[in-house]
């Protein structure tokens, strides 16, 4: 009996490792394919030559346009879309573990309302998109701080109070955002605000990638090493304490990391819904509820998922479709399918 259980565990581990390997390979293949497709198609062989010339400093006599298109336009956009997909997915998963509720999304603490309001102020000021992103990030962080402050001021401290506080703060910022949209110039500023809120990677630049890459990488790594503790937190505070953990400290740390990831993502791409809700559920459907396996799957699948949708967004029609629309149209049916199967 014991030998049979041990064999099943080995088979399960082998299958999981194979699944992760397949996801890594798919990410790489779609990454290369994404660089090649667009308004200006590039042969995959030319892309490989370009990367080789960058590494070896050898001249392959490639068209100068290829280097500009790849390194200045497509590569930053592709990497950012993969990082945002990963960040929203693992943030949604981590918050679902903390609140022990599979319906929790990365925007549960009011961050989308605060970030949207900050972006709208930046657009109305008339500065370049760097200011839009900075203000979006700062107000996104501010919304979570206010959520914590309101929750902490209540008589009892609980997850329900934190969620309700996030709902209140998010709606307050949404009201301010509606006020700004009402008074915005209907011919220039208002369309820009509306388009930003629908989500897009259209304005991503190489400088934004350089600035945000360390933030993404460091936060993702920290969350990855905390993944197994999500199993403990999801059991409840009393069980976590009995196992020698400090649930309040752990929750604060994980919420801080997810806030940084989501605020950074929203400041770059706008509000992209359903990714942080649908991807973790797909993960549970495939690998089960164990966060040790669920986290790496969600990380890799989230990256692949949003990259594929972004490719559809920029190639399906002559004018780019806001990615937030596609994530809703694609994410909702997938979510319904997973729930029905479950």
Helix content bin:
over 70%
| Biggest beta-sheet profile | none
Name of the CATH superfamily:
ABC transporter involved in vitamin B12 uptake, BtuC
Oligomer: single chain
What's the total count of β strands? 0
CATH topology: ABC transporter involved in vitamin B12 uptake, BtuC
What is the residue-mean pLDDT, rounded to a whole number? Answer: 89
Question: How many angstroms does the end-to-end distance come to?
Answer: 29 Å
Q: Quote the beta fraction.
A: under 5%
Topology summary:
Elements: H1 2-36, H2 44-56, H3 64-99, H4 111-125, H5 129-153, H6 159-183, H7 189-197, H8 206-225, H9 227-233, H10 237-242, H11 247-269, H12 275-287, H13 291-315, H14 323-341
Helix pairs in contact: 1-3, 1-13, 3-8, 3-11, 3-12, 3-13, 4-5, 4-6, 4-7, 4-11, 5-6, 5-11, 8-11, 12-13, 12-14
């Amino acid at each position: 009996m014991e030998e049979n259980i041990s064999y099943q565990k080995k088979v399960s581990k082998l299958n999981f490792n194979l699944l992760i390997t397949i996801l890594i390979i798919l990410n790489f293949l779609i990454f290369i394919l994404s660089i090649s497709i667009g308004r200006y198609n590039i042969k995959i062989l030319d892309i490989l030559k370009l990367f080789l010339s960058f590494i070896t400093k050898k001249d392959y006599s490639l068209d100068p346009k290829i280097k500009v298109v790849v390194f200045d336009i497509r590569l930053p956009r592709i990497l950012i879309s993969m990082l945002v997909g990963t960040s929203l997915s693992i943030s949604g998963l981590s918050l679902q573990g903390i609140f022990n509720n599979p319906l929790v999304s990365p925007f549960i603490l009011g961050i989308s309302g605060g970030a949207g309001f900050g972006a709208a102020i930046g657009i109305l000021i008339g500065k370049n998109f760097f200011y839009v992103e900075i203000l979006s990030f700062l107000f996104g962080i501010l919304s979570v701080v206010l959520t914590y402050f309101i929750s902490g001021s209540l008589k009892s401290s609980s997850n329900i109070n934190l969620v309700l506080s996030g709902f209140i703060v998010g709606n307050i910022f949404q009201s301010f955002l509606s006020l700004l949209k009402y008074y915005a110039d209907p011919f220039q500023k208002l369309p820009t605000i509306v388009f930003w809120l629908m989500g897009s990677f259209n304005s991503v630049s190489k400088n934004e990638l350089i600035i945000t890459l360390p933030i993404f990488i460091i936060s993702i790594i920290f969350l990855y090493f905390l993944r197994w503790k999500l199993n403990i937190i999801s059991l409840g505070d009393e069980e976590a304490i009995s196992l020698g953990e400090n649930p309040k400290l752990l929750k604060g740390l994980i919420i801080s990391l997810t806030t940084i990831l989501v605020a950074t993502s929203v400041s770059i791409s706008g509000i992209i819904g359903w990714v942080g809700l649908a991807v973790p559920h797909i993960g549970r459907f495939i690998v089960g509820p164990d966060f040790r396996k669920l986290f790496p799957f969600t990380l890799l699948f989230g990256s692949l998922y949003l990259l594929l949708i972004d490719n559809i967004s920029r190639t399906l029609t002559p004018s780019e479709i806001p990615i937030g629309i596609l994530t809703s149209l694609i994410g909702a049916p997938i979510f319904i399918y997973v729930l029905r199967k479950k």
